[in-house]
Amino acid sequence: MKRPYISALLFCLLAAAAGCGKQPSAPPSPADRAYDVEADWNDPQRVIPLGYRAAQGKRIFYTQCVWCHADATPAGPSNRSNVTPTPPLMNDGATLNKETNATLRNAIALGGSALGKSAMMPPYGRTLSEEEIAELIEYIRAIAQPPYQAPAIPPSGSAAK
Q: What pTM does this model have?
C-alpha cells in the first residue's frame, strides 16, 4: 500500500528542485552571460562584460601590455609614467577609438617606431600570433571609454560618382 503523503512530499521536493513556486527573476545581466568581465578603470562599480575573444585579449594585455598601458598592474604601479612620450591607457577611447583595427594591428605587430610613434613600443609580431593580436584589439575595443563604435558600413552601390 502506497502512502499518499509520501507521494505528495516527493512531488513537492521535485517541484522545489525544478524551481516551481519561485517568483520570476529578472533576466540575467550581460555580465552574467559574459565569458569574463573587466572593472571599468574609470568607475570600479561598473563591470564591462567580455566575450570569449575579448577575454583572451585581456589575458594577453595583462601579460604583455599592462606595464605601459595602465596606471597600475596586479603587482603595483606600472612603468607608464617613466616612458616618453607617455603611452595611452588601453581604455583611452578618446585616443584609440580614432585608430582603425589595421592601425592598431600594425602598431602591435611592428612596434611604435614603424608607425612614427614611440620607439619604446616593441614589436610583438613574432611574440603574438595574428589571432592573439586580433583578440587584444577586441579587448581594447571592449574596455574603451567612451565606448567604441564601429564605423558604419556604407550601403553597397553607393560609391561616389
A: 0.76
